[in-house]
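Internal tracking record. Fields below are filled automatically when a chain is submitted to the structure queue. Please do not edit lines marked as system-generated. If the sequence contains nonstandard residues, flag them in the REMARKS field before resubmitting.
Queue: standard
Priority: normal
Entity type: single polypeptide chain
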Amino acid sequence: MYRALGRNRLIYRSLISSYVKTGLIDKALQVFDEMTQSDCRVFSIDYNRIIGVLVCHSRFELVELYYDAMIPKGYSLNSFTYSRFICGLCKVKDFRLIDKLLQDMNRIDVVPDMWAYNMYLNALCSECLVDMALRVLSHMPENGRDPDVVSYTTVISGLMRAKRFDQAVQMWESMIQKGLRPDANACRALVLGLCSIGKIDLAYEITVGVMKLDFSTSVYNVLVNGFCKAGRLDKAQVIVSFMRKNGCPPDLVTYNILLNHCCDKLMLDEAEKLMKIMKRNGMIFDSYSYNQLIKEHNITPDVVSYNAMIGGFCKASRVHEAMNLFEQMKTEGVYPDEVTFKLIIRGLLHENKIATACMVWDQMMDKGFTLDRDISDTLINAINSKDSSSTSNGKEQGKLVVTS
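SYSTEM-GENERATED OUTPUT FOLLOWS
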């Protein structure tokens, strides 16, 4: 009889496996239910398999039912299945059931793997449940899992998003003391958060100043940008020099940060030097990194660089030099975008060069770009004013009529 039951169990398992492989999960559940209600002995491995299947196929409306039915019968999940179960629940943010699983695991002395712990920490932080994440992190060593660099950096990032900067710095220092080496993303998150509240020196001190790690260019660029925003170009240039010495040469993002700072502060001679360096180094990068930093889109770094210079010249009432740069960029195959045209027209209007402004406006419309309403109104008023003042010999010239 025992052999017959064993053979039936193998048949049930084979059918379940076959249905799962073909994606017929409901059929597999039906066979599993028949097996549990038959005379065949069911083992924990059978529940591990069926619950694993339900988690894998995101059938969370059923998985808790099967789990609850399993526990009173004395069956249990192994660490792997529990861990995958937790990971699946993290995706749907079912923290109630995760907490229930962790309590059950604690009772039978089973511990989630690091992947599950880190997924859980990330899910908590993404939902702004940082205090809960801190409790989970603090209990991990008691459960036999020491937090790794991913655990710490996940919670640090959560603290930064919650603007709990002092706690983030304390946790960062604790992580370093434990000998864990943070990755570039963690460094960038910490530096960016500290720079956003003006703690640039602290950001420098706890990263570049203390750790002496080989940081990525993006981390250095956040520091350079922070010091430029604070008006400390000298410190920004020190970091650029440090980058070169440490085998991490400045990229186009670095130079564009410096370039925009110089143009904004009307340090145009310094900006021209930077442009020459950029051209000499033949920098050709995609626009993603820099666009993320300045929150601009659909423009290339070359256009960004030229626009910064043109904007600086116009701001300094040196529109003639801005026009020279406007022509130069076209000869070098860098095509003006909508921002370029607006900067030029605004600068020309400021210096009352109406005819040239109209010429640039024509070019702009040929490219399919449009002016903002305020610039358009200013230009039209300037044209009408010029027309009315140029009437002579009793011949009244018609005003420009614009329909909006």
